[in-house]
Structure formats: structure tokens, C-alpha cells
Amino acid sequence: MTYKNKIYIIAEIGVNHNGNINLAKKLIISAKKCGADAVKFQNFTADNLTTKNSKKAPYQIRNTRNKETQHKMLKKLELKKEDYFYLKKFSKKNKIEFISSVFDEESIDFLTKKLKVKFIKIPSGEITNYLVLKKLQKIKNKIILSTGMANIREIVEAINIISKKRIYKCQKKNISIINKKLHMKLKKRITILHCVTDYPVEEKFANLSAIEKLSKTLSLDIGYSDHTLGIVAPLIAVSKGAKIIEKHFTLNNRLPGPDHKASLEPSKFAKMVEYLRLFEIMNGNGNKVIQKCEKKNIKIARKSIVAKKFINKNENFSFNNLTAKRPGTGINPMKIE
Q: Contact, 188 vs 1, CB < 8 A?
């Protein structure tokens, strides 16, 4: 994937539609108004995702104030297959990219063959799901791989499975690229998201320096899926080189559901987008050249060689009788020797 200097901003709707297609539509419209490049949903069925008696995560219990099973909670948050067709079409109408996460082989087939999405998002919980990773070998869609709860070896192993052949080799703490040709193809297809899986993530656990480390180790584009509160972390993330920013999005933090409390409302999401776009402008291309706005100040701020004191006829120039003063309209002081 290539992003040039543009940050790709994803509004993670996830399950914040609460299983209601009208709320989903409002979220899409609002995300577009806020300046997001894409909205992301989650393609799952509760029956395929979890066993009937699977417990909810601590944050889910805390945010929903309900100790029901994961299955029961997720059943209420499902969308129908026809809803995804409608929402993809609705997103296109509103000129915003539709992305969805996959959780099993069936959802991969549905999104790639039926819905024909451009991107496939692999959520953090599936990074050790061999069945899903193996299935990705058979598709050509671009992949966004989230890495919450994973260490570098698990990330490398997942990438090697997706790629069919080993691209990386792990030796103790060292990761090396052993198939450069396949790595070049992989670079065009996959983006890795640094992520810390908790809702919300405390600041001390954000570990944003991992973005630079992953970029250096894997030589791939790296993004950031943010679960912290507020908008500071995404701004730091792009300064570390993140190409994608994914942030949970809601219309109201007080809505019922597991993720609303750790999501941004429209006003804050729009402010985040504003600051990220400002970062793009201020970050520039990295080449140290004279900026256009500086040129008018060169002759004023720089200096020229002038006489330090009265110089007699036939007296040799020296550091005793020459100095440099503004303006820079005369001989450059670099030529004083």
C-alpha cells in the first residue's frame, strides 16, 4: 500500500451501530462530515465467533454493566448480510470507503466474493487464528493486520502464513528478511497496525515507540489502531511514522454497548482529523531545502563582508580590519579567507 504524505483515517464504527441500520447510516454520514477516509464495520455472526458460554471481557462488563455471555451480547450487535450490501452502497453514495473486519473463513468469502471490498481488516484477536490466516492466502485484497495482544514473533509468523512462503526468519531477538522478492510484493498488499487491546487503554500502556520499531524490523507500512481516550495518541503516532489512523467512532459516548465509552464523538473526531491534516502540511517532505517563504528574508538576515575599521590604502585585508554585518547584499562571509 502507498500513502505518500496522506494519512489514511478510518472511523471504526465496529459494533457502535448497536445492530441498528439507521444508526449505522447516521454514523457513516457523520464520519464523512468529520473528514474520515473510511468507515469500518465488523462482519461476524455470534454463532461463528464465540461459544455459547464464553465470558465477556472485563471492559465489556464494565462498559455495559451487564454480565451476560459474549454470545448473548454479540447476538444483539449482529447485522444481516443484506445490511452490509446496503451499507457499502450507502458509503459509496456518501463518498467514503467501506471496510469491514473478518473473524472467520465465511466472512472472508462474503466480503471478497460477494461484497467485493477493497480492504480486508484482520482484527487483533485473529492474529493467531491459523484458519483465517490460511484463508487469506487465496485472496488478492489488500490487508490491514492489527497486532493487539501480539509480540513480534507472533506478528512475523502470521505474515509468513498469509504470504504462503517464509518472508521473515526469527533468530533469538533478530528478525531478518529472507525473501526480498516476496517482501516487495507483500509491501504493496499489507499494512500492520500497532494496537494495544483494552478499552480504553491507559496512557502508560500505549507504547507508541513500537510504531518505529515495527517499521524498522518489518520494512512495511505501519499504522495505529488507537484505543486511548482523546486525540493525543494519534498525533504522536503519525509523528512516529503511522500511515493509517483507526479510531473508534460514536454519535454519543452514553449510548449502550461495549465500545461507545472508548470512542470519539463527532466533534472530537473532527478535531482529530483537523490536527492530522495539519500535521501532513507541517511535516512536509523531509528534504532540507530553502523554503519559498524564506527567500525574501535571505538578504535581510544574512551578512556581507564589511570593514571593521578604517582601512588605509594599500593595507592588506585581514581579520583585524574585516568583519561581517547585515545586510547580505554584498560579498558572502564564507569567502572571507
A: yes
Looking at every residue in the chain, the average pLDDT score rounds to 95
Residue 246 and residue 218 in contact, taking contact as beta carbons nearer than 8 Å: no
- The model's pLDDT over 322-337, given as tens digits with 9 standing for 90+, comes to 999 999 999 999 999 9
Sequence-ordered list of residues with C-beta below 8 angstroms from that of 33, at least 6 positions apart, any chain = 266, 270
**Cα 47 to Cα 44: distance, rounded to the nearest angstrom:** 9
**CA-to-CA separations, 183 to 138, 187, 259, 302, in angstroms, rounded:** 17, 6, 35, 48
Residue 319 burial by Cβ neighbours in a 10 Å radius (0-12, 13-18, 19+): exposed
Asked if 91 contacts 98 with a C-beta cutoff of 8 angstroms, the reply is yes
Q: pLDDT band at residue 171, thresholds of 50, 70 and 90?
A: confident
Please indicate whether residue 191 or residue 60 has the higher confidence score (pLDDT): 191
Q: Which of 36, 50, 62, 46 is nearest to 260 (CA)?
A: 62
pTM here?
0.93
Q: Please, which contacts does 58-66 make with residues 24 or more away whose CB atoms are closer than 8 Å?
A: 59/198, 59/199, 59/258, 59/262, 60/258, 63/199, 63/257, 63/258, 63/259, 63/260, 63/261, 63/262, 64/256, 64/257, 64/258
- CA gap 170, 177 in Å, rounded: 9
Burial status of residue 34 (CB atoms within 10 A of its CB: 0-12, 13-18, 19 or more):
buried
